[in-house]
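Box 3.1 — From sequence to structure: NINL protein
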Amino acid sequence: QLLEAKASLSLARSQHALQLQQAKAQINNMVPKKQFEQLQTTLREEQGKTQQLQESLQQQAEQMCRQLVRTQEEHEHLLQAAVEQAEGLEHSLRGAEAVLAERVAQLRDAQAQLSKNKILIEDLRGENRSFAMALQAAELKQKSMEEKNQLLEEQASALKQLIGKITPASLS
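Predicted structure (token representation):
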């Protein structure tokens, strides 16, 4: 029993020495109370600042999200307006193309008519030349007839004078 008691005492001493050593190490690692309180105060201040920064960041993130949503909505509206404008322009383009096609058809018809008119004009010029030549011949004939008529009138006048002279002489 004595041996057991000595062993227990030796074990208790070594545990006590170990605990004492651990306690010394803890005491060496310990900070004075005033410094600990300052550190706690600084920690609380830093935690407060961190909390404020987190709240500020949260507010900024929410504000940026709202702004992003607004920007996205604006972009959607702008895109919708651009799509509507493009559709309107496409519709206008189709209308303009239809009008242009109609104008092209009208111009082709007009060109065909113009070609026909040119041919008619050439025909009429040919006929006009023929008529001009016939008219010139008719004028020459008329002039000749007028000259013959003039000659006949002169002859008729001379005959009348002659008859006028002969008639009184034959009556007497």
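Summary of the box: The helical segments are 2-29, 33-171.
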